[in-house]
Specification:
β4 and β5 form a beta hairpin. By secondary structure, this protein is of the alpha+beta class. It is built from 19 helices and 20 strands.
């Protein structure tokens, strides 16, 4: 689209807006009639570790939302010379799951507990046994039951339980709803009815009946909607909450809010069966759309759905690039100490590319990127750690390589179960997220980790904010009977080939040797957790 066409689309409200709350960035992306991004705004934020809980405050949430929207609107004005007053549709997404519990007055009763917390192991184990279905620690039902086991005072007063994007959607539209992909991480859904599993709802209600709470589980959960459903409209109050300038009009239709797993699938055109994607940023997860159910229950594998309800096997790891980013910040501080001003993106690219010069197995170096716990390797807490032997080949290339390798260390454990034990077939694995922004580097290392071809599209860096904008566009523009997969193929990804890298055998062998060292060294990480208080 040319500038004049984009300008006309903006003035006529033919654009679509997606906003996603990532772990370190809130991003607003405006797309045009061709579904390509035309403006964006970012707000950096960080979770806090307070009273043994990883959290963000309500002030963080609303201030960040408003700042990202304001910067996107400013981008529109600067590029096209017009003021944004309306869009055709919008949607909200956020980091998956977690726990936000509200009372009858709509007040948040305990601080938001994010996906990063690994404090629900007892509940997770008991519910997995009760449901005969893997319940990860970060899922909302695990947080709820753990709060019950802990005898937390607020539980009896719960009127509504939701996730971050469900909360934002509720406050901006008045609707207590959630997209099925995210809802499946609150409580498992029935693949036939596309609603919460009745069997599990009944089992949970029976389990907690002796507590005498005045609510039943189905009464406090959001309503489930599918991709393409209308999830309400932006209210007058919601418009003022989103756009503090008062220029945005109310009445904009809003799509079902989804988690970053679902928007990642959309952003990589990975919603059809036998397709998969890897999202690598603050956390890392791989998702594969299944042809049939898995044979066994695996604690390392989460079962969720696509935004339109197809079964998905997911391997999720809490930690990915946070420690790597911290090292990049240190190198930036080093350059500043010498009076050099280096562009941050250039610094990332240079150091990432340096990793390709390293030894295949990182020269004997070892690192753990555990800012928080990692359930796949059995850690409730984490300590970032770098270790080497005196004879290790310690140079910059191997240093960068080991931190890129360890970002995918835990992920490989779960993927090996999925691909080798369950014999899941994948025709296409797509990569997206910050790890893939530097051309070839993250893609090559991911291909080594999964020993499979990895494709990255030019839009890989757009991520989930673009994905939720596409879901809003699907709601607004889908044809009768058109599936989400068909819409993506026809209106979004037609003609886009992407770049595919086959795994290099030397890299694969080197990654396998690194993983052996990684596994043997886990007691070192355990000692660090116990010793570094």
């Amino acid at each position: 689209m040319g500038v004049s066409e984009v300008k006309e689309a903006i003035l006529n409200g033919k654009t679509t807006l997606g906003i996603e709350f990532g772990s370190t960035r809130i991003k607003a992306v405006l797309i045009g009639e061709d579904n390509a991004p035309i403006a964006a705004g970012n707000h950096e934020w960080e979770n806090r570790y307070e009273n043994n809980i990883w959290t963000y405050s309500l002030e963080d949430i609303w201030g960040g939302l408003q700042d990202s929207y304001r910067k996107m609107a400013e981008d529109v004005k600067e590029k096209y010379g017009v003021t944004l007053t309306k869009v055709g549709a919008l949607g909200f997404s956020a980091m998956m799951h977690g726990y936000m519990a509200f009372n009858e007055a709509g007040e948040l009763m305990v601080p938001f507990r994010t996906w990063r917390n690994t404090i629900t192991e007892e509940a997770s184990v008991k519910l997995t046994e009760l449901f005969e279905f893997n319940i990860p620690q970060r899922w909302s039902i695990a947080h709820l039951y753990q709060a019950i086991l802990n005898k937390e005072e607020h539980v009896k007063d719960i009127s509504y339980l939701t996730t971050l994007e469900g909360y934002v959607h509720w406050k901006l539209t008045g609707k207590k709803v959630l997209g099925i992909g995210e809802a499946a991480g609150m409580l498992p859904v029935d693949p036939e009815t596309k609603q919460y599993s009745r069997r599990m709802v009944d089992a949970f209600n029976e389990l907690i009946a002796p507590e005498g709470f005045p609510w039943k589980l189905e009464e406090i959960l959001p309503e489930i909607l599918l991709a393409g459903d209308n999830a309400g409209c932006l209210t007058e109050e919601g418009a003022r909450l989103l756009d503090t300038s008062g220029e945005l009009e109310a009445g904009i239709p809003v799509c079902p809010p989804e988690g970053d797993a679902g928007t990642g699938m959309v952003a990589t055109n990975s919603v059809a069966q036998r397709t998969g994607n890897v999202s690598a940023g603050t956390s890392v997860f791989a998702m594969v759309v299944l042809e049939k159910a898995l044979d066994k229950v695996h604690p390392e594998i989460d079962m969720v759905t696509t935004p339109d309800g197809s079964a998905v096997a997911m391997v999720h790891c809490n930690n990915c690039t946070s420690d790597l980013n911290a090292w990049i910040d240190l190198f930036e501080e080093f350059t500043q100490a010498f009076g050099m001003k280096v562009d941050k993106n250039e610094l990332f690219g240079t150091l990432y590319r340096k990793a390709l010069e390293g030894d295949p197995d990182c020269g004997g170096l070892l690192a753990y990127n555990y800012f928080s716990g990692e359930h796949i390797t059995g850690f409730e807490e984490g300590r970032p750690l770098f270790v080497r032997n005196p004879e290790s080949n310690f140079n910059l290339a191997n240093f960068m390589r080991v931190h890129l390798f360890t970002a995918l260390g835990a992920l490989k454990t779960g993927l090996d179960i999925l691909l080798k034990e369950e014999n899941v077939q994948i025709d296409r694995m797509m990569g997206h997220g910050g790890l893939f922004k530097t051309k070839e580097v993250g893609q090559r290392i991911m291909a080594a980790a999964v020993n499979a071809p990895v494709t990255v599209m030019e839009t890989a860096g757009e991520g989930g904010a673009w994905g939720i904008a596409l879901l809003a566009s699907y709601m607004k523009n889908k044809k009768d009977g058109e599936s989400l997969a068909q819409f993506l193929e026809r209106d979004v990804f037609a003609g886009q080939e992407g770049v595919t890298l086959e795994p290099d055998s030397t890299d694969v062998e080197g990654f396998n040797r690194f993983v052996e060292r990684y596994t043997k060294g886990l007691p070192i990480e355990k000692a660090a957790v116990e010793s570094l208080i």
